[in-house]
Amino acid sequence: MAQAVEEWYKQMPIITRSYLTAAIVTSIGCSLEIISPYNLYLNPMLVVKHYQFWRLVTNFFYFRKMDLDFLFHMFFLGRYCKLLEENSFRGRTADFFCMLLFGATVLTGVVLIGGMIPYVSESFAKIVFLSNSLTFMMVYVWSKRNPFIHMSFLGLFTFTAAYLPWVLLGFSVIVGASAWVDLLGMIAGHAYYFLEDVYPQMTGRRPLRTPSFIKALFADEPVVVARPGNVRFAPPPVEVQQQN
């Protein structure tokens, strides 16, 4: 069993493995009181006035107390982050990292701006960890790129992947969780989907190009496409045969 888990962990793509590890280590550290959540949460005043810039990152790693909700989010993170990185972003690790960076920036910006709007500022002020929202963003993007996959929710009913975010949003409302957290993830996910998939088809321009300095951080392996076994290929040129 332990060996199977180890193999599963090693086979994860780099971004998924790194994020999942950081989330689990952070949550365990907080549960054991090695790390304090008060040093991790998003606090604009502490970021600006006391230069605690790490809060812009660490608030995405803590998934609160380790309970059933934590297990659900670890499952969503491990599954949909992995599916995106292995399929839609296969051989494009830098682009996938840029997607997460875009999502984190949008989520942080929405929370900061929402905190300054009357009547809703109180709701946004309660959102101090955006890890759940970033996970929900990945679920949203995956559902948009795989809308026709049939799914089942707890064996109760079936639906297509296009409705997965709405099903999870409804489940959050039923169990009494904050709908704002999931809605923020949907906003960030839709912003990325529109700018990356819809807008380029409409205008021929791609606004979310991955910067060269981010591409330099990742050495993407070339995607190797296997030749079908039932297809005959032409023999090599005569020059090549003579050289051999």
Automatic annotation (TrEMBL):
Entries under Pfam families matching the protein: DER1 (PF04511)
Major localization class: endoplasmic reticulum
Membrane topology label: Multi-pass membrane protein
InterPro entries referenced in this protein's UniProt entry, alphabetically: DER1, Rhomboid-like_sf
Residues passing through the membrane, by range: 19-41, 93-117, 123-141, 148-168, 174-195
Subcellular location: Endoplasmic reticulum membrane
Keyword set, alphabetical order: Endoplasmic reticulum, Membrane, Transmembrane, Transmembrane helix
Cellular component, GO annotation: endoplasmic reticulum membrane
SUPFAM superfamilies: Rhomboid-like
Record bears the keyword Membrane: yes
GO BP annotation list: cellular response to stress; proteolysis involved in protein catabolic process
UniProt similarity note: Belongs to the derlin family.
Function summary: May be involved in the degradation process of specific misfolded endoplasmic reticulum (ER) luminal proteins.
Protein name per Swiss-Prot or TrEMBL: Derlin
Organism: Ilex paraguariensis (yerba mate)
Lineage: Eukaryota, Viridiplantae, Streptophyta, Embryophyta, Tracheophyta
